[in-house]
Design a protein that fits this description.
The structure holds two protein chains of two kinds.
Chain A: H1 5-29, E1 50-55, H2 62-75, E2 91-95, H3 96-99, E3 116-120, H4 128-132, E4 138-140, E5 146-148, H5 158-162, E6 169-170, E7 194-195, H6 201-204, H7 211-215, E8 220-224, H8 231-238, E9 254-257
Parallel strand pairs in A: 1-9
Antiparallel strand pairs in A: 1-8, 2-3, 4-5, 6-7
Chain B: H1 10-36, H2 51-64, H3 67-75, H4 85-106, H5 115-118, H6 125-153, H7 161-184, H8 197-223, H9 230-261, H10 264-274, H11 284-302, H12 304-308, H13 310-337, H14 352-386
Helix pairs in contact in B: 1-14, 2-4, 2-7, 2-8, 2-13, 3-7, 4-6, 4-14, 6-7, 7-8, 8-9, 8-13, 9-10, 9-11, 9-13, 10-13, 11-13
Classes of the chains: A alpha+beta, B mainly alpha.
């Protein structure tokens, strides 16, 4: 069967219209999820605003810090490149004067200036990283956790410029060959995306506290800041705590107990 | 009209193939970056934007500067710019093209670029920057092409293009304001956290862009039968002078605020750039070259005797361009990241592949510029031959 030029044009035109309509249909539907609503596990831990208190008095030896850092980096497949240029880190240490540059004070009690603080994402209540992200790849969840979608991130690194805490790392190259022991329970990342501490959302969903909290032997306390009876609120009521660069108004959800009498 | 770009002298084709060769080499390096990742550049966790974003920032200014020809010609009826407005508009097209390419090569996941469109996020300044840059590119292509076509036929441009021309004026201001807002609204970067950032960007843009245009106009006069004219070049020279004075003034305002307040965070980036910090000072020589060139250019520009001599004016323009290229295309971006949020110094210097990719993007821009200028100049040359000079 041969088709005339006229028929061919008709068919071509109709097909074109069809493609056009399906494209518009896609546009209309965009942003509407047809999937079944996700049901969270009943065992999961929930809160209105997750927060952390880091009691630095409990961190006495190098081993105390290392245990916590290793616990986090191991379960989250954080690579170790062994050089500062490619470095990816979720939780690390920095001396007090560099962790709290605005609190610098040469007359502090002996040892405080050099005391190491554990640093990680502050999960700010008013996060600049979320504000600047052009694709909503980083977003604040209803429980206050600032999360990162590694599959949507375009790697523009605007969030890294926006974060006043240096909490974010970029995968300058393929991280997979540099992961010592792969944890199959947690995704590895690809080159070209940003990552950071996620307050262990994957563990909270299963009813487990963050890995660092478990490994800290009571040095890190995790709870709901919006609940006046929570453990974190009890501690904040009775102890003097600091937040990093609080004057910038990002309202960090991580609080630090630096020194003073230990009553634990 | 585009066919005019296909007919050219040996020298024209030689230049085109030279640019294509440079682009080819850069493209090979880009493929390497694409497969290895941005670790191929000198950037790091602490200095997470570098040469690419610096070039982007600088070139947004060059693009915006077309408005310095459009305003006098279309709003003040300054007829002497009639023949060269097109050079400004086509320069804008080339500069915006480079801006987009620099953003693209800086992306960690370039194949996901459409995520910006699929998930539009108006609270991100990046969203607005993409919007205004694309709009500005569109405006300048349409306006430039339409007015040039009309010119070629010796008729007045269609009336629908006038509103677009008027729209392009605030639009040019918007592209550089929005680009300044990328930096000026970040809480943890005191070097950028300054209300004068957008104004300073515009001042440096209106100096660097017209300075480049003067150099281009003189090259055009030398290589083609089309003479942009002495008076338009002198008028542009005055624009460069005022804009450069404003730019240096704004920079000094920043220095005053930082050093009279003596707030450490506001001083430290300046210290790093111009004196070195904690024993690190990789950028110090470069920043002082920028300062010296700015001073030389101001002496040559402010003095009417030297400004009127084209041979000295072109030296002043080159000095302005290089000075601002260092200041904005390099120092401003790197300076914002040093010291890092822990008040420690990590230095940055571009790598060889990064430099080659940067040069290749410039070559793409120059190729676009060459082709567009070839078309525009062919039209002007044809007018000269037939004596149908319609540009008033």
């Amino acid at each position: 069967m041969s088709i005339s030029r006229r028929d061919f044009l008709k068919i071509a035109g109709l097909s074109g219209l069809g493609i056009g309509f399906s494209a518009t249909d896609l546009l209309w539907k965009r942003g509407r999820a047809d999937a079944v609503e996700y049901m969270p596990s009943p065992k999961g831990l929930t809160a209105k605003r997750w927060a952390m208190v880091v009691d630095l008095r409990k961190f006495r030896t190098e081993e105390d810090y290392k245990r916590v850092i290793d616990a986090c980096h191991r379960i989250h497949n954080v690579p170790d490149f062994g050089n500062p240029k490619d470095e990816v880190k979720w939780i690390w240490t920095e001396t007090f004067e560099h962790a709290f540059p605005f609190q610098r004070n040469e007359y502090l009690p002996e040892g405080i200036q050099e005391k190491k603080a554990l640093l990680f994402c502050n999960h700010c209540d008013n996060p600049p990283c979320v504000r600047v992200c052009p694709t909503k790849a980083t977003f604040k969840r209803r429980d206050g956790i600032v999360a990162q979608d590694y599959h949507r991130c375009i790697g523009c690194r605007f969030c890294m410029a926006a974060c006043p805490f240096g909490s974010r790392s970029f995968n300058w190259r393929d991280p997979r060959p540099f992961i010592k022991e792969m944890n199959p329970e947690f995704p590895t990342r690809t080159k070209g995306v940003v990552e950071k501490c996620n307050f262990c959302v994957e563990r909270l969903a299963k009813g487990l506290k963050p890995a660092c909290v478990v490994a800290s032997n009571g040095g890190m306390i995790f709870g709901d800041l919006a609940d006046p009876d929570s453990e974190v609120r009890e501690i904040l009521k009775t102890h003097y705590t600091l937040r990093r660069k609080a004057e910038l108004g990002t309202r960090p959800s991580v609080f630090y107990i630096i020194g003073g009498e230990e009553d634990a | 009209m585009l066919e005019k770009a296909l007919i050219g002298s040996r020298r024209y084709w030689g230049w085109i193939f030279f640019l294509l060769a440079v682009i080819g080499v850069g493209f090979i390096f880009y493929l390497r970056q694409f497969s290895y990742g941005l670790g191929l550049t000198g950037m790091s966790r602490d200095v997470s934007w570098g040469l690419y974003i610096g070039q982007f920032t600088f070139l947004v200014g060059v693009a915006a500067s077309a408005v310095m020809l459009v305003i006098p010609y279309y709003l003040h009826d300054f007829k002497k710019f009639g023949k060269i407005v097109i050079l400004g508009e086509f320069l804008a097209v080339s500069a915006v093209t480079m801006c987009m390419l620099f953003i693209f090569v800086d992306m960690g996941q370039p194949i996901r670029i459409m995520n910006v469109v699929l998930h539009p996020t108006p609270n991100s300044i990046m969203f607005w920057d993409a919007l205004v840059l694309n709009g500005y590119l569109f405006l300048n292509i349409v306006i430039g092409w339409t007015t040039l076509s009309a010119d070629r036929k010796g008729v007045a441009p269609p009336s629908w293009v006038k509103p677009l021309i008027y729209l392009s004026i605030p639009w040019a201001v918007s592209i550089h304001t929005v680009t300044a807002f990328l930096y000026a609204g970040l809480p943890g970067r005191p070097f950028w956290l300054s209300a004068i950032m957008a104004a300073r960007f515009l001042a440096s843009a209106f100096a660097a862009g017209p300075a480049f245009l003067i150099i281009l106009a003189l090259i055009v006069r030398k290589l083609t039968k089309f003479d942009p004219g002495k008076e338009p070049i002198q008028a542009l020279g005055k624009i460069v002078t005022y804009a450069m004075i404003a730019n240096v003034f704004f920079l000094l305002l920043e220095v005053f605020t930082a050093f009279y307040s003596r707030i450490p965070g506001h001083m430290s980036s300046f210290e790093y750039l111009y004196a070195g910090l904690d024993g690190h000072g990789k950028l110090v020589p470069l920043m002082w070259v920028s300062v010296v060139l700015a001073a030389v250019s101001l002496v040559l520009l402010i003095n009417p005797g030297t400004r009127r001599k084209e041979s000295l004016l072109v030296v002043a323009c080159a000095a302005v361009f290089v000075s601002l290229w260092i200041d904005k295309g390099f120092g401003l971006i790197v300076g914002g990241f040093v010291p890092n949020p822990f008040e420690r110094v990590t230095e940055y210097w571009p790598t060889m592949p990064e430099t080659m990719i940067t040069i290749a993007v410039w070559a793409v821009g120059l190729l676009v510029l060459t082709v567009l200028y070839k078309v525009a100049i062919s039209v002007r040359e044809a007018q000269l031959e037939s004596g149908t000079d319609s540009s008033h």
